[in-house]
Amino acid sequence: xxxxxxxxxxxxxxxxxxxxxxxxxxxxxxxxxxxxxxxxxxxxxxxxxxxxxxxxxxxxxxxxxxxxxxxxxxxxxxxxxxxxxxxxxxxxxxxxxxxxxxxxxxxxxxxxxxxxxxxxxxxxxxxxxxxxxxxxxxxxxxxxxxxxxxxxxxxxxxxxxxxxxxxxxxxxxxxxxxxxxxxxxxxxxxxxxxxxxxxxxxxxxxxxxxxxxxxxxxxxxxxxxxxxxxxxxxxxxxxxxxxxxxxxxxxxxxxxxxxxxxxxxxxxxxxxxxxxxxxxxxxxxxxxxxxxxxxxxxxxxxxxxxxxxxxxxxxxxxxxxxxxxxxxxxxxxxxxxxxxxxxxxxxxxxxxxxxxxxxxxxxxxxxxx
Length: 369
Fold this sequence. Notes:
With about 375 residues, the protein is an alpha/beta fold. Helices cover about 40% and strands about 15% of the residues. It is built from 14 helices and 13 strands. The strands form 2 sheets. It has a 7-stranded parallel beta sheet with strand order 3-2-1-4-5-6-7, sandwiched between helices. Strands 10-9-8-11-12-13 form a 6-stranded parallel beta sheet, sandwiched between helices. Helix 5 links the parallel strand 5 and strand 6.
């Protein structure tokens, strides 16, 4: 008999096609369905998304702005109270749900009433969630099992005295993200022939530290063959465009936000991917680039996965040596190929969708013994 799984995604739109946590949930949901389990994703979505699992759309009244969060929470409580389930898999949500304490206690009490097990997946790092860490700690301690996607979170989870936990990286579909020939249409559209393309995929928000990458582009604007391509959107988008125009940077292309499905095509025209964020471990964008055989330049602020090795399957840099590291790999084609091949192997061995799905499925099965 399959596992009856309920996943809660507290978002106004459930759009896995845009990436992020929703894509994580979608990939695991599809894996579970393929293996005979009953999957329901609970969301307050107002959009449409076709999936092999059941998406439960809980509608609320958006006109009552003051009580929107409470409305949503009550919808979840009511739905869960009348349904049966074996596993309730929670994910770190939008900050407002933690701050208003509308999830933790009732949700866990309902799961206990139903004699169900709770799995909690922590997306991101303690530094990203510093302003609500106390609330998240409560949720972690109440869970039957904790999964974290950033390796450096291992020490923080241990500090909480959690016994049932596991590091499982973000799942990557290696049949979609794989080495491919450069997309000729994109090369022509952006006029990138004979250019060394540095790609960054990130929200344009302060905590993503994209400004540092733009400052590096400013320093390198004298190199006519180096182009910086920025994929993503956010509240700082217009500011960044205005600022780089003021700097006279003609070596930066702002692409905007695109569907995750098209990311492999953009990765095909990139030579390297740069992840300038100062906190957290290796995220989806870096893993997707690695799966495509692209060298990734990233900072390592805290403990890293033991199989990630500098100048073996990625390039480690700091703000002070970024240009040196970049030019090193730009001028060494053999090193680029070696790092790209090793990067692909790392993802296949540690983060492929089927591998991650199998590990999560085994956790569910152990909890139900």
